Amino acid sequence: MSAHDIRSAKRPDPDQPLVDIANYVADYKINSTEAYDTARYMLLDSLATAMMAMKFPECVKHLGPLVPGATLPGGARVPGTSHELDPVQAAFAIGTQIRWLDFNDTWLAAEWGHPSDNLGAILAVADYLSRQAEREGGKPLSVHDVLTYAIKAHEIQGCYALLNSFNRVGQDHVILVRLASTAVATAMLGGNKEQITTAVSHSWIDNGALRTYRHAPNTGPRKSWAAGDACRRAVTHAINAVYRGVVGYPSALSAKTWGYYDVAFKGNAFQFERPFGSYVMENVLFKISFPAEFHAQTAVECAMELHAQVAGKLDQIEKVVIETQEAGCRIIDKTGPLANYADRDHCIQYMVAVPLIFGRLTADDYNDDVATDPRIDALREKMVVTENPQFTKDYFDPEKRYIGNSVQVFFKDGSSTGKVSIDYPIGHRKRRAEGIPVLLKKFEAAMRGHLPSHRVKAILDATADPAKLDAMPIQTFLGLFAL
Predict the structure, then answer these.
(1) With bands split at pLDDT 50, 70 and 90, how would you rate the model's confidence at 6?
(2) How confident is the model at residue 9, as a pLDDT?
(3) Disulfide: which of 102, 343, 415, 446 matches 219 by Cβ 3.0-4.6 Å?
(4) Which keywords label this protein (predicted)?
(5) How much is the pLDDT for 289?
(6) What is the distance of C-alpha 475 from the center of its chain?
C-alpha cells in the first residue's frame, strides 16, 4: 500500500502492478510452441462461437454502429456481417459475438472469466490498423502477431484471476477483460511502456461493473454483451493514451481513500501466484461440447451418460443429487422460476435436467419453447445440489485445475443409478488430444451454419496449414469472414 501523504500533490512512482503489465506487454517474448498452438485453436473456436451467435436476433441487433449511419468504410470489420466500424465500436461488436452464447474458452480460479473475450479488442484494432497499413503501403499485422497479443491478454487476465477474487467484492470478471485488452491494444497502437501504464491506470479508475446481472434475481442478457462493453472501453483508453496523450494516474490502485484498493478491494493489494509468461493460454479450458457455464460442463457430461437410464423413467424419479465445487454452488445453484435464457444457462439444475430428459444440450435449449416443457421444472424441483470438498480442492490446485461434478439419480422404488463423476471436461488441457478434433468440427459446423459455401472452403483452406495461417496478414484472414 502507498505511504503517500494524502495532502501532498507530488505524484508517486507508478504502482508496481501497472509497471509489471507494461513491461510484460512491451518486452516479453513468447517462446512456447504449446501456447501458440493453443492460441491458434482458441482463435478458431472464438470465431466459431461468433458465427453461431449470428442465429440469435438479440445478439445481431448489437453488432452495427452505435447510432444509425455511424459507419467507417475501410475500418474494422465485424465477422459474419457487412459492418465496417471504428475500432471502438467494432471491439464491442466482436466481443459481444464471441461471448453471446457462453461457448468460448474459460479460466477458473479465485476469479472466473473467458480470456478469449479479449479478441473483441484485439481483432478490431488489428483489422483497423492492418487495413490502414495496406492502404498506405505499411506493414500489416499477421495472424501470428494477433496470436502473440492474445497470449499476453490471456496471461494478464488469467494471472490476476488466480488469487484475486473480484466476485467476492461484487464486481464482474469483465474488469479483467478491460484491463488485459487495454494493455495489449495500447501496444498494438504503438504505445510505449509509459503509455501502456497510463492506459492501464485509466482502466482501474473505471472501477468495475456489478455482477448482479449474472445472479438471481437480476440475471439477464447484459452478461452476454458485458465483455464487449469492456473491450470497447479498453480501446478507448488505448486510443486516448497513444493518440491523445492523456495523463496517467500512477497510484490509481494504491492511493489512500481514493484508489481502487481502498474504494473497491477492501484495502487489499493484489496478490500474484506467478510472474507473467504463457501459463494461461497453455492451460485454458475450451467449451467444446456444450454451451453451458463452465462450472457445470462436467455435470452436463454426467447427465448425458445417464440419459438412457432415466429418460423413460422420469415420473419414477425421487431425487437427483448433484455434487459440485464451491464455486458452482455459489454461482449456478438456482431454484424458482427462470426468467430468460440468461437465467437458464447459469442454472446447474436446468443444465442437468435438459440432457437427462432429451440427451442433448444446445444453445436453443435455453429458449422459451424448450423451457416451457413442464418436465424440466418438475425435474429441477427434485434436485439437491451440494459441495464436494474434493472437487473444490482440485479446482484450486494449480497442477490440476479440475472442474469436477457428479450426478446420481434415485428412484421411488429405492433403486438408483450409479454415481457418474467426471473431474475435468473434454476442453481441459488433460483432454486436448480428445478435444481438438471436436473443436475443429465445431468450427467447421459453425462456418457452414452462417457463411456461404465458397467462403467456408476458403476459410478451411486457410486454416489447414498452421504455418501459412500464421503468416497471413490479419486483414486478409478476417476478410474471409466479411459479407
Answers:
(1) low
(2) 80
(3) 343
(4) Lyase, Tricarboxylic acid cycle
(5) 85
(6) 23
State yes or no: pLDDT of 481 exceeds 60.
yes
d(CA 356, CA 350): 10
Q: Which three cell numbers stand for residue 231?
A: 473491450
Residue 420 φ then ψ, to 5°: -95, 125
Q: What is the mean pLDDT of residues 370-383?
A: 97
pLDDT in tens, 23-34: 999 999 999 999
The DSSP code sequence of 56-118 is -HHHHTTSS-SSTT---TTSEE-TTS--EE-HHHHHHHHHHHHHTTS-S-BEESSSEE-GGGG
Measured between alpha carbons, how far is 57 from 213 in angstroms, rounded to an integer?
20
Give CB contacts under 8 A, 24+ apart, made by 394-399.
394/423, 395/108, 395/325, 395/326, 395/327, 396/109, 396/110, 398/162, 398/273
- pLDDT of residue 7 exceeding 80: no
Kind of pairing between the strands at 383-387 and 76-77: unpaired
- Backbone φ and ψ for 434, nearest 5 degrees, come out as -75, -35
CA distance 87 to 127: 8
Sign of CA dihedral 104, 131, 82, 181: positive
Q: Is 323 exposed, middle or buried (0-12, 13-18, 19+ CB in 10 A)?
A: buried
For residues 375 and 113, the answer to whether their CB atoms sit within 8 Å is no
Element (H, E) at 387: strand 383-387
Cell readout for 316 is 419414477
What's the start-to-end Cα distance of the chain, in Å?
Answer: 51
What would the mean pLDDT of 319-331 be, rounded to a whole number?
A: 95
Cell of 341: 435464457
Q: pLDDT tier at 2 (50, 70, 90 boundaries)?
A: very low
Q: What is the pLDDT of residues 267-317, one digit of tens each?
A: 999 999 999 999 999 999 999 988 888 899 999 999 999 999 999 999 999
The number of beta carbons lying within 10 Å of the beta carbon of residue 8 is: 8
Question: What are 31's three cell numbers?
Answer: 517462446
pLDDT at 3 over 90: no
Exposure of 333 by Cβ count < 10 A (0-12 exposed, 13-18 middle, 19+ buried)? Answer: buried
List residues bridging with 386 in a β-sheet.
323
Identify the helix (H) or strand (E) that includes residue 22. Answer: helix 16-27
> Could you give the CA distance from residue 428 to residue 438 in angstroms, rounded to a whole number?
13
Q: C-alpha cell of 434?
A: 480428445
